Amino acid sequence: MQSGIFHTQYAGDMSMRPTWPMRWRIVVVILFVLLFPWSADRYWLTLANQIGIAAIGAIGLNILVGFTGQISIGHGGFLAVGAYSAGLLATRAGLPMWLSVPLASLTTAVVGAFFGLPSARLKGLYLAIATLAAQEIIIWLLTHGDVIGIAESLSLPQPTLFGLDLTANGATDFSFYWIILVCLAGTVIFTSNLFRSRAGRAFVAIRDQDIAAQVIGVDLVRYKLLAFATSSFFAGLAGALTAHYRGIISWERFTVDVSILYLSMIIIGGLGSVSGSIYGAAFITLLPALLNNIGRAMGDTIPQINIYLPYVQQGAFGLAIVLFLILEPEGIVKLWRDVKDYFRLWPFSY
User: Fold this and answer.
1) C-alpha 212: how far from its chain's center?
2) Residue 187 has pLDDT above 90, yes or no
3) How many CB atoms lie within 10 A of CB 344?
4) Which of 87, 249, 253, 322 is the least buried, fewest Cβ under 10 Å from its Cβ?
């Protein structure tokens, strides 16, 4: 009977998936995501793309909040920077999508590092207010486009990738599925390895106890700004993908409500967890879709349900967050870990 996982080589100890159940699970996941778009209709492809983009943004926010312990309520503003940067690069500079998306992400990283400067002096609630101020500043600039010379909304040209029209034959969702999947896979691989590096361990040390981290030689200002820049880079990536995927962007897509929505994703999914960010993004994206389908199914029986459906959705979000905070503060990732431990230890309870 297996009583633990014991490694006899450093390679096995450093492996990200050291046991065969872990390897089989990742194989199943890869097969599922590769086969899914060939059998799914446009509705499910749209939901999958929304989950993918949200997961990229949630992983970025989790780097800052979950792994580094720097509370941020300005994530929606950084998404807006990425979206508008990609839109301006595509419409005014005429850059292709493969170039505008990474440039927009880098631009957002610079903006995020700038607004992360208060983290050198502030933390906790005070830092949260500072990031909220960053959110409001960005939205104010977007709603007063004459100040920086842009319109409140932008319409992007039809997306192409290396000369291929991504909207040909109405296959926009199918084409973007693969682009978003590649970006999400790259984000997951980078972030998973980031916290096995010196910088990632410095992030975690700052989260656990910043004074102790400084005592052992961690440069707090440097690594806090690096955390803001890295988090903002992925927020910009999510925003840029949103801009090209939707074709039209407006500041109304990036209000403070969006920042709260992303916070709820990482709280429900699990703070300090890459997979938890994906679980939380899927939960928050699928919940309103599920409620909409229920409301549509009950529309004939209860005609007034469509009037109250938006309030039901808001209540469901709030209730889900409260229940997770009370019953399972570590989120969905902890529930999944408990399930795996149950089958690994069965028939024993310890």
Assistant:
1) 29
2) yes
3) 12
4) 322
Query: What pLDDT sits at residue 277?
Result: 95
3-state secondary structure of 249: strand
**Per-residue pLDDT tens digits for 3-16:** 556 667 767 666 67
CA distances to 4, 130, 288, 301 from 304, in Å: 56, 42, 18, 9
DSSP assignment letter at 297:
H
- At position 340, the amino acid (one-letter code) is K
> Which is higher by pLDDT, 311 or 214?
214
Residue given tokens 């994906």 in the structure block = 278
Give the chain's domains with CATH numbers. Answer: 40-345 (1.10.3470)
pLDDT band of 179, cuts 50, 70, 90: very high
- Burial of 337 from C-beta contacts in 10 A (0-12 / 13-18 / 19+): middle
Q: Which residue has the tokens 């807006």?
A: 80
CB atoms within 10 A of CB 149: 8
Report CA-CA distances (Å) from 215 to 117, 202, 226.
Answer: 21, 12, 19
pLDDT of residue 3: 56
DSSP per residue over 134-191, as a string? HHHHHHHHHHSHHHHT--SEEEPPPPEETTEETTGGG-HHHHHHHHHHHHHHHHHHHH
What's the angle, vertex CA 198, arms to CA 196 and CA 203, rounded to 5? 85
- Residue 88 pLDDT exceeds 70: yes
Q: pLDDT by residue (tens digit) across 301-314?
A: 777 777 777 788 88
Does residue 143 contact residue 262 with C-beta atoms inside 8 Å? no
